[in-house]
Design a protein that fits this description.
The model has no long low-confidence stretch (mean pLDDT about 90). With about 120 residues, the protein is mostly beta strands. The chain contains 1 helix and 10 strands. The protein has a single domain, classed as Mutm (Fpg) Protein, Chain: A, domain 2 (Sandwich), CATH 2.60.270. A hairpin with a 2-residue loop joins strand 6 and strand 7. It has a 5-stranded antiparallel β-sheet with strand order 3-2-6-7-10, with no helix packed on it.
């Protein structure tokens, strides 16, 4: 009896995790002379700091199939010459199942300052 409960619990766990889907996000900083800090895509933290020319590690997002696709702005602090400003991209970046999203922030990326 106890063995059958363990078997059923194990089988349930396998079925639930098999319903999970995944995709990934990474960010490249191509802004000249500026560091990006506290980089996040929606509620997902991507990198604590990115120097010019640096790319974050790949961040895997796992969720149920029904939750996809996701759409978020990239949020970060841009730091240059001792000054820091909080910014969001104007563009929303979409992520669907099995996507490998690479977001490049460069000198021409359109951003907004939500504080203004």
């Amino acid at each position: 009896m106890r063995l059958s409960r363990i078997y059923i619990f194990g089988l349930s766990a396998i079925l639930l995790t098999s319903c999970m889907e995944k995709a990934s996000v990474k960010v490249t900083n191509k802004v000249h002379n500026a560091k990006l800090e506290s980089v996040s895509w929606g509620d997902v933290s991507i990198a604590s700091s990115l120097m010019p020319g640096e790319t974050s590690e790949e961040t895997t997002i796992k969720d149920y199939k029904e939750s996809f696709p996701f759409s978020n702005q990239l949020e970060f602090y841009m730091v240059a010459d001792g000054n820091s400003v909080y910014l969001k991209t104007k563009v929303y970046y979409n992520l669907d199942i099995d996507d490998n999203l690479v977001i490049e922030i460069n000198d021409t990326t359109e951003v907004i300052n939500p504080a203004k």
